[in-house]
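Question: Hello, beginner here. Any chance you could explain the protein record under this note? Any guidance would be welcome.
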Amino acid sequence: MLSNLFENGTESARVAWSRLPHSDEGELDGAGLLSTATSDRNGVESLDYEVIENYAYREEQAQRGKLFVIYNAGVKWFFALLIGIGTGLAAVFINISVENFAGWKFALIFNIIQKSYLAGCLIYILINLALVFSSVYIITQFAPAAAGSGIPEIKGYLNGVDVPGILLFRTLIGKIFGSIGSVGGGLALGKEGPLVHTGACIASLLGQGGSTKYHLSSRWLQGFKSDRDRRDLVTCGCAAGVAAAFRAPVGGVLFALEEVTSWWRSQLMWRVFFTSAIVAVVVRVAMGWCKSGNCGHFGSGGFIIWDISDGQEDYSFEELLPMALIGVIGGLLGALFNQLTTYVTRWRRNYLHKKGNRVKIYEACLISVLTSVISFGLPLLRNCTPCPDSDPGFEIECPRAPGMDGNYVNFYCSKDKEYNDLATIFFNTQDDAIRNLFSAKTIHEFSARSLLTFLVMFYTLAVVTFGTAVPAGQFVPGIMIGSTYGRLVGIFTVNHYKKLNIEEGTYALLGAASFLGGSMRMTVSLCVIMVEITNNLKFLPLIMLVLLISKAVGDVFNEGLYDEQARLKGIPLLESRPKYEMRKRTAREACGNQKVLSLPRVVKVADVVSILRSNEHNGFPVIDHTRNGERLVIGLMLRSHLLVLLDSKIDFQHSPLPCHSPGGSRAIRPNFSEFAKPVSSKGISIDDIYLSSDDLEMYIDLAPFLNPSPYVVPEDMSLTKVYNLFRQLGLRHLFVVPRASRVMGVITRKDLLIEEETENSATMELQSTSVRGQRHERRRSTAENGGDLERPLLNGLLVQHQR
């Protein structure tokens, strides 16, 4: 949706900035200030990743020494440790709970069906219904922001967009317990996406010292209150979530780098890597403790790791053609999955979910019943298959003992030495079903008819289930779908080439990678994750091949799954590359004929209140006048900072004249930490502040609190360069100004190498082009103008406003 601030731009500019929030243009009021009104349609608000170098910030930095820098770095590493431990423990709790619910459920059902299949079917449906109902009830009544995977919201947060409620304590609780109910209830979804959101919530809560609403907070932990620091912590949490979900620490680091973050630096890389390593240690210790029988039904099906190191040893050149075909199929089915989920989600949001929470509960329960009936009923329609002749070294039991995980499930079979291949993947947990599909030395375990039946039904269930009001991830369902058609291709390959060294499980692995690549459009991180969870490095070139093909095919049709879902949810993501049309437009054309709402340096409290009530803009340029009467832009004032000043009332003054010094004469001023808003909330609003009639007649000098050095661009700069600057610096506001009348100097690489300047000044080959000879003249002219440097007048303002 295009902001009316850009309504006079061309169509290409509209496409480029179509995701910026909405605002309405206003008229000048009697005080000479522009009055605007904006619409807040979905509560999306931008984050302030830019450092506001106002007087309070500089005063705080001046009081800090080298010891504080060392302490601050140590605290960040300590927080990385806590994030890793917390996310690992949360993952352990979710996995143990899901495995125990599934273990109890299948053990009970296998015992009941020995007497009556109808009774077993009813009990199976009721157990799944109860688990799903608990999940959807928690989400609808307690934590609405915990629905879905949470990855689009976290990706938006790290892109600079704050969706209210996504990082709250109740969201964390709803994500954990909701995932247990939805995954344990047998729905066609996974817990891996929600674990990423869980890690982000844990990181954010630790960064703000806990939850004050639920009296679970500690002042000692409240060390990071800026959006920049919280962004780094949330990035660590995302990587920790992937590392815990897949037991893939390196894959977690690469996932955070490739998929969710928009800004990255080497210092953050080390902390993210350390966090993922801590998660791996925590999970490993927990699994060792569970192997001794302390975790109930938690066994080999617990944390995802499908060891196929004993699978196919090598591959021939002839196999590259069917493997490339798997990549093409993955790209087509992945793109189709994204398109279908987009249609279903849009219909669900526009029609079904508008009818209230009760309809959401009915919908999830209906899908649960449908999934249970299909997973229990379809295997009954399939004839059983005799167990294969076991070799002396064959360790897989056939048929499987009732209630135990593994291959060859005996389900509705009349003879003891028979198994139901469709039940082996349908009437099972998803982790165990994938392990069965990946398994080696199980040629001809699954028939092509059973695999095709499962592919069609599970694909349909995954499309329908995605978007319901429960925590839902798409990693494991995607692996299920891909491994099914991959195994199908493997069956045809074995039959065609008649080679004994070809394993169907190898093709199942490649199919899983291809579908995830075709749907999520990840390459490097997904490749490493697949290698880590299969413990087989020999297939790395093949995984790379199918990922490249599937991503290339999928990109022809639509964008990745998370980008599509973010667009549906109204999250205005700024992608890594600007649109091609932006090259033909300038910053001035993007601004159109907008009128900029500005504030004087000393402003009356009543005028501030009127401005804040009449619009929802989050940044205002501040204008001052020189002794010659010239108007100068002296900085940018944030809405949140104005609200803090109005709420504290400390800096109110009777005189309409500016203070003589930046600090003023008052000994008490709001410190820099007081300007930070609470995480994932809007903080105070103008309606929360009480001001008396005497207060409204007071004045505020904004100079000590504004950002004196906002980023500016010339009006004829191309929109492509503006876009790159805006995104790469993580800006919220960007001034557009006329061409400057003169150059004060030119900064080159030499001017930025401060530490080496004294040592290498004589031998430095890079020459500065600054006009140093004009410094004396510039200083003299500055003194004649009353001490104010000449600045161009503000012409436009590119603002990422709150909707």
Summary: Residues 1-41, 756-793, 797-803 have pLDDT under 50 and may be disordered. The radius of gyration is 30 Å. The CA atoms of residues 146 and 175 lie 5 Å apart.
